[in-house]
Design goal:
mainly alpha, 7 helices, elongated, two-stranded antiparallel sheet
């Protein structure tokens, strides 16, 4: 069994068992609303608070660029660097949700260099699920399941 598999065993009152089996269905519980809300929240968070705090909000403050690279970058792009000027990386956070899966990514060609710390760029983590974000995702999921159970007359 994979780490993400969930097994539910239902025993007890026959009417309740039938309702719960109907609720879960043969394909499992549809978590699309909770996952979609989580994806929207996280992509806005990564492109907003993480950038504004330069990684501080997720406990991974961005290190300074080395002096020679910072000087070269300032000469090449006076004022604000091109990715900040264009907003490309900020607008490139995306997600895809389905009934039981959420995928998050940044489609900018430059993203991996920053996230992983490659080439001349020290690691400047932009996507990280810390404890506070995990708790928020859990709230979205609980809300989705609770709403579905209420509609199925299980609460």
């Amino acid at each position: 069994m994979a780490d993400s598999d969930i097994t539910v065993t239902i025993q007890g009152d026959k009417e309740l068992v039938a309702k719960l089996r109907g609720f879960i269905g043969s394909d499992g519980v549809n978590l699309k609303r909770g996952l979609g809300a989580s994806g929207l929240y996280l992509t806005k968070f990564f492109s907003g608070e993480v950038f504004a705090s330069r990684g501080g909000v997720i406990g991974k403050p961005w290190p300074r660029l080395n002096d020679s690279y910072a000087a070269w970058k300032a000469r090449r792009w006076p004022g604000r660097p091109p990715l900040i000027q264009s907003g490309e990386m900020l607008r490139s956070f995306q997600f895809k949700d389905s009934a039981r899966k959420l995928e998050l990514w940044n489609s900018s060609d430059h993203f991996e260099f920053h996230q992983d710390g490659t080439r001349h760029i020290p690691q400047r983590m932009m996507m990280r699920i810390d404890q506070q974000r995990a708790a928020r995702v859990v709230k979205y999921m609980i809300g989705d399941i609770t709403e579905q159970m209420d509609k199925a007359d299980l609460l």
